[in-house]
Amino acid sequence: MSAPIPGARPAEVQELARAQDRLSFVYLERCLVHRDANAITATNEKGVIHVPAAMIGALLLGPGTNISHQAMMLLADSGATTVWVGEKGVRYYAHGRPLARTTKLLDLQAAAVSNRNERLAVARRMYEIRFPDDVTDGLNMQQLRGHEGARVRQAYRDAANKYGIDWDKRSYKPQEFDESDDANQALTAATTCLYGVAQAVTVALGLSSGLGFVHVGNDRSFVYDIADLYKTEIAVPVAFEVISRRDIEDIPSETRRAMRDAMFEAKLLTRCVRDIHRVLGADGAGDDGFGWDVVELWDDKVGTVDAGKAWGQEPGW
Fold first, then answer.
1. What is the pTM of this model?
2. Which residues does the record give as Mn(2+) binding sites (predicted)?
3. What fold does the segment set 23-96 form as a domain?
4. Disulfide check for 139: which of 13, 143, 174, 244 has CB 3.0–4.6 Å away?
């Protein structure tokens, strides 16, 4: 008889917090990340902090972080998305294991993105969530883009006027973050926070980050689609409000903290899960699929059949 595996036992899937009940994200940099029982620990010269792994939506690992094998095991078992990000948290490199154990929503996503009419319907629903006062019936993608561009530019102008910020236009070069003006730096940092949350929820629900409906050609196209739902409501006003403060030493850090508070106040994880179900036409489906490890086999006549069964032993074989 083999000896029991030492340490805390992994949580069962049924015991894990649902995606919408978790912390939106935890950002760490310049520290050692390890585990203590079922909590993630972050250690630096100032001390140690503990965060229950099952309550993390996305753990963002910035520069100077070292994470142990045990910590990654815990995060994987807990279904927390681990995202490695670059300097100032504005570059995405990789992510870890999802929370989902079923492909129900992924099947809907793949079917919708593969059908022209369904894809357009999803794009219209996305626009309606962003701008419910506008009418999208009968609009094609070119018309939707025109409406969206005008509304976003107006949102920038409105926020700049509200907070007394000189504003020209949205301008950002990924390789030259420090060359942007203060407002554009704050906007970049704010939208990156949205990308982290959207990535965490997308992966947690078992969806494909690359199968976008408006954005295409990138491995995070669907993440950009979902993050855009909240850009003018949350990211834009937060970014301009941060810039309106005086004597800011670190724009990205100040913006991340402000976004953390704004996303918590807006219950963004809950909304993000609900809105993804809505845009994919799965309203009311909930996320009960998290509860079980589902593995089935495809069948060309009946759809799916049970896995884990010795097929081919029926009478007649």
1. 0.69
2. 148, 215, 228
3. Ribosomal Protein L15; Chain: K; domain 2 (3.100.10)
4. 143
